[in-house]
Amino acid sequence: RRVLLRIAPHLVWPLPFVFPLHRGDRISLWRLAAGMWLYDLLAMFRNVRTHRMLGKRGVLEAEPMLRERGLLGGARFYDAQCDDARLVLATARSAMQHGALVANYTGVLALERTAGRVVGAQVEDRIIGRRAVIRASVVINAAGPWADRIRNLEDAGAAPLLQPTKGVHIVVDRSRLDHREGIIFTSPIDGRVIFILPWGNLSYIGTTDTDCAESPDQLTISGDEMVYLLRSANARFPHARLSLEDVRASWAGLRPLLSDRNGGNTSSRSREHAVVQGAGGMISVVGGKLTTYRTMAREAVDRAVRELRFRDGRPRPGKAATDEEPLPGGETADLSAFRERGLELGVTPESVEHLLRHYGTEAAGIYNLGAGDRPLLRRLLPPHPAIEGEVIHAVRRELAQTVEDIMVRRLHLYYESLDHGIPAARRVAELMARERGWDAQRIEAEAARYVEFASR
After folding, report:
1. Which site in 27, 134, 285, 372 is 20 to 30 Å from 260, CA atoms measured?
2. Strand, coil or helix: what is 229?
3. The domain 85-163+269-312 is classified under which CATH number: 3.40.50.300, 3.50.50.60, 3.40.190.10, 3.40.1440.10?
4. For strand 12-22 and strand 71-82, is the pairing parallel, antiparallel, or unpaired?
5. Rounded mean pLDDT of 138-144?
6. Is the distance from CB of 243 to CB of 173 less than 8 angstroms?
7. Within 13 A of 274's CA, how many CA atoms are on the CB side?
């Protein structure tokens, strides 16, 4: 966390949390205090700030809209919040800057072998349907919840290493809860930990943590799962009276947790990771979580380096400075000059702050697009602060291939605007067409494909 705050300050930022305790909660005040000291200890007391225990009055001063009845006190501590999709994207782009070839929308069909060893993969371009073979001295499987599926291509009898759990989040208007900071509490329904996170004018409520046999490709969200989150939030913020009609958007994902052969509930299952090597020599990195992705990658690459030295004696490269080198856009946390430049160009203050939060120093590139083509400084879908130049930037610099890429994983209009950004779908397709060479028929098809996706 500390490293990510330093190398990507525009994508990972400190977030204060309040942890209220009410009468009947499964956690006592003394256990919460002990947990807070352990939290600071694990961070070696180098967190943004150390925790502070709060009485009832202190909790209500921090979060006045919390339920007062039965409130015993709580704690205030710091963690970090991140834009997960853009953090993954920035990491891939950093690899590209160092010479890596990155191909999104590329699925693995089979593994290539020589004398029983895995030496590559048969892949398919999911956009145009073209197939190819990619050969490699070492193959690393870092497929998250799909990792066991890839391992079975190497060894059909390989025992699964993962026992995934599903996490569901919902999005509501922040004004309904009227919270100031992050909130963490235990659900009165089952005692599971719940988060309420501020995201601009929205609140993210999550998460569930249930065993899941669904395919990672076909995850669904049930009404019961959303109701569980709504009831949990209403128990702490009774004035909100949230219902299913208040849910603006939702998403689900699988946690690729290591299998617990001793049983145990989902919340106690290990978030640790493992780097293993299969019968064909393929290296798989499994388990873990987003916070530790950089150290997981380092361990997997170190394993690959040892394998290459063993196979052909090639020299060990120097230590990668991934804990020091900024990700794209994270070269400085002081963005005042970039803020002034945007305002000079006539970009609204709201859009300037949006650009700095999403792109950091790379906002300058989007400003340059608009300086040469002023309409690119217009908002895509007012009142959302995203501007048209971001679409061009996403196609040129961020591997965006579809309207869904733009709306969901680059600009987040799917989650942050009414109607999931559907009214802007055609304009996004038109802007992409300028870069991709799409004709009118393709523009219509791409926009329609997004409308179908967002209307599900």
Report:
1. 27
2. helix
3. 3.50.50.60
4. antiparallel
5. 97
6. no
7. 13
d(CA 182, CA 76): 10
Does the global pTM surpass 0.85?
A: yes
Summarised one tens digit per residue, pLDDT across range 33-88 is 999 999 888 877 677 788 999 999 999 999 999 999 999 999 999 999 999 999 99
Pairing relationship of beta strands 140-141 and 283-287 according to DSSP bridges: parallel
Question: Nearest-5° angle of CA 250, CA 238, CA 22?
Answer: 105
CATH topology of domain 13-79: D-Amino Acid Oxidase; Chain A, domain 2 (3.30.9)
Q: How far apart are CA 86 and CA 269, in angstroms?
A: 27
- Name which of 70-79, 282-291, 308-317 the model is least confident about: 308-317
SS3 175: helix
226 beta partners: none
End-to-end CA distance of the chain: 35
Average pLDDT of 116-143? 97
Neighbour count for residue 305 (Cβ, 10 Å)? 15
Both tokens assigned to 432: 């992409």
CATH fold of 336-454, please? Helicase, Ruva Protein; domain 3 (1.10.8)
**In this structure, which amino acid lies at residue 358?**
H
Q: What tokens does 428 get? A: 């996004």
